[in-house]
Amino acid sequence: MTFSFIRDSLTLSTIIPLFPLLLSQGIATRRKVPRIGEAQGPSMGTISGHGQPIRLTMIGESTVAGVCAKTYETSLAAQTAVFLNQSTQRPVEWCAIGKNGIRAKGVRELLLPKLHEKPDFIFIGLGVNDVTHFSTRQAWCTHLSGIFQDLHLGFGGIPIFMSGLPPMEQFPALPQPLRWYLGERAKIYDQLTQQLCQNFFHVTYLPLPKFEMAAFFCVDKFHPSELGYQEWGRFVATAVLNSELLSNRPALSV
Q1: Which superfamily does 12-246 belong to?
Q2: Phi, psi of 87 (to 5 degrees)
């Protein structure tokens, strides 16, 4: 597996002088940011419609687990299902398999075994915890490619939409220079993710759009708000509708 050159501003000469400050800011931020639980209620549901159901499964970290959403009905998976239903008038069966704080290794070992029925497509939201918990780049690539391979072995060439990493340099909860540092790490891991997806024919890299960041975050200034999940869900649904997966639908603009 080969990767093209990735510009890396995080050299040792840059990081070592900042390390004590970054460490203290990381500890302080962890204590300061409110601890908000995962969404409440059933993590799956069905929206009625006409015709063949669209079956959607999301797997990943806190954004899939609906952190900052009151219930799963206002989480990313359900909001994606709402827009799919509104655009196609077809029934949509959605399922969210997420865990707050999980990394790629944990997704492969703990969450993939919970996926028993084959959906029409899978969305993966992952990477922030690997950035903040200093997973190595090799570990990230190894475990993410393992997730793709396991899904392919278990469900054939099922379409997978892999979310890009968010712009962590814009997270209000993070002080400077920690915000800059994690933002640079996220950019590197996002580039690795994009290149890795190109090695799997059934995986589509889905970069995050430019949201209105002030309204995107919830009270912890780290996770999406319910409005943020709604806008993100609209974007994911649009990407699915514009793919060959639902080729009978007209293309929509993002």
Answers
A1: SGNH hydrolase (3.40.50.1110)
A2: -85, -30
